[in-house]
């Protein structure tokens, strides 16, 4: 495990409930605040399920699944098998609990481990990596391993590498929370998809407001 992934593991292992609250509706004030000031989070959630359409009977791999909100929603929408992977033990425990509460535990499997070393099946219809590449120092090996699975859809989000937003995120995560953080540009994303061997891909700008800006990427075979 690299220093950057170790820092991310330590941070995310300590904040499952706080992280899950970004997507949950239980606190209406907090949810409304996040919808305005963290717009990119909700853009990527909306786009994920808009772009894949009907997932009935599909197999899904959620890389960096966190608290399982994306994985569980895929299962709720009819996916026959959903596998989530995360390096933080508390995130995996949280995901298993929520999947049980939502009645989809029989469709979901949550694995503790590093995506690059966890044994995987030869194919998944859909691979998602939402909020994952923010914390990856060298994303190309991840892109290449996902490309080896030849998914119909590879859906991922990326923070934009901007002076103001990128600097404040680095201060907030790297210097205060000791969690390394990384940014992307159109050019770097185009290079990643191309070098990984994706024959088709689309990069969509998302976010805005105080939540900064980012990208939503769709690769496919």
Corresponding CATH superfamily? Vaccinia Virus protein VP39
What string gives the helices and strands in order?
HHHHEHEHEEHEHHEE
Class derived from helix and strand content: alpha/beta
Helical amount? 40-55%
- Spatial sequence of strands, sheet with the most strands: 3-2-1-4-5-7-6
Largest sheet data: 7 strands, mixed
Tell me the distance between the termini: 30 Å
How would you describe this protein?
- The chain is α/β, with parallel strands linked by helices and 221 residues long.
- The chain has one domain: Vaccinia Virus protein VP39 (Rossmann fold, 3-Layer(aba) Sandwich).
- It is 43% helix and 19% strand.
- The protein contains nine helices and seven strands; from the N terminus they run ααααβαβαββαβααββ.
- The protein has a seven-stranded mixed sheet, with helices on both faces.
- The radius of gyration is 16 Å and the shape is globular.
- It starts with a helix and ends with a strand.
Topology:
Layout: H1 3-12, H2 16-20, H3 28-37, H4 39-52, E1 59-63, H5 69-76, E2 81-86, H6 89-101, E3 108-112, E4 126-129, H7 140-148, E5 153-159, H8 163-176, H9 186-196, E6 200-207, E7 213-220
Parallel strand pairs: 1-2, 1-4, 2-3, 4-5
Antiparallel strand pairs: 5-7, 6-7
Q: What are the salient characteristics of this protein?
A:
alpha/beta
């Amino acid at each position: 495990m690299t220093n950057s992934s170790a820092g991310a593991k330590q941070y995310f292992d300590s904040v499952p409930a706080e992280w899950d609250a970004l997507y949950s509706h239980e606190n209406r004030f907090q949810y409304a605040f996040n919808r305005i000031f963290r717009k990119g989070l909700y853009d990527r959630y909306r786009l994920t399920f808009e772009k894949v359409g009907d997932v009935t009977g599909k197999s899904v791999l959620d890389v960096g699944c966190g608290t399982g909100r994306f994985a569980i929603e895929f299962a709720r929408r009819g996916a026959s098998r959903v596998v989530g992977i995360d390096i933080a033990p508390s995130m995996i425990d949280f995901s298993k609990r929520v999947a049980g509460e939502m009645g989809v535990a029989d469709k979901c499997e949550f694995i503790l481990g590093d995506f690059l070393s966890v044994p995987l099946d030869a194919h998944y219809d859909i691979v998602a990596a939402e909020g994952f590449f923010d914390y990856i120092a060298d994303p190309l090996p991840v892109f290449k391993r996902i490309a080896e699975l030849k998914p119909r859809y590879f859906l991922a989000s990326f923070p934009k590498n901007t002076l103001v937003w990128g600097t404040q995120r680095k201060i907030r995560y790297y210097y205060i929370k000791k969690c390394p953080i990384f940014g992307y540009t159109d050019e770097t994303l185009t290079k990643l998809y191309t070098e990984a061997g994706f024959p088709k891909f689309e990069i969509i700008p998302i976010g805005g407001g105080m939540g900064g800006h980012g990208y939503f990427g769709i690769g496919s075979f």
